[in-house]
Amino acid sequence: MKILTINRTKRMMVSRAVNIPRKVHFWSVTPSIGKHKKEDSIALITVLRDYLHLGDKEREVTRIINTGKVKIDGKMVKERRYSVGFMDLIHIDGLDSDYRVQYDTKGRLTLVKQEGQGSSSKLVKIVGKKDEGAGKYLISFHDGQNVLSENKDLKPGDVLLVSLPDKKIEQVLKLQPGNKVFLTGGSHVGKIATIKKIEVKESSHSNMLTLEEGFGTVVDYAFVVGNNKFQYEISEVEN
Known about the structure:
Elements: E1 8-10, E2 27-29, E3 41-43, H1 44-51, H2 58-66, E4 70-72, E5 75-76, E6 83-85, E7 89-92, E8 98-103, E9 109-114, E10 121-133, E11 136-141, E12 146-149, E13 159-163, E14 169-173, E15 180-183, E16 192-199, E17 208-211, E18 216-218, E19 222-226
Antiparallel strand pairs: 1-2, 3-6, 4-5, 4-7, 7-8, 8-9, 10-11, 10-13, 11-12, 13-14, 15-16, 15-19, 16-17, 17-18
């Protein structure tokens, strides 16, 4: 049985996380399946045309992608519908800066210029852990990637600083009181706050965080970006 793939979405129906004009064109390209969730991602061709304005037509931008000038997280990408999302690092030959994808304070995905150390490393949140036997664990990240690790102390909710493109673990940022988090959802999306307390729920409800700034949120929205020894270079973006 052939699976129908939807390549286009009406612009008025595109996720509100995608910050594009709704009435300039009728159609928008649908991100491919398999990396970030559809509602939290942007198709690569949309990034180049509507965010970076590297061409007015899909044909022009497709030509740039086909020449191999685009890298995501250090690896060449030639798929125009490639799913780009939170914390992905975009490099395009010929541009002065790389760009990191993050949420602004309105919950929209935006591009932030990234230079220095930030251009060769990335933060990834652990969303799953599976015992593979022989002392190895399959660690799944928020961006759809996986690695094998022998570190049994890694847990879902922790965030790793990994080098690119080899994904070597450089730092482990635990989800624990005192550490700073970037909020990826909720009424305080795009804000940076400090964990005061973690409230573990015994029911099926998500665990809750109480933050030093005077508000709370669910653990799912917390993306750790720093501890008392390390702080990732990330700031709040207001648009």
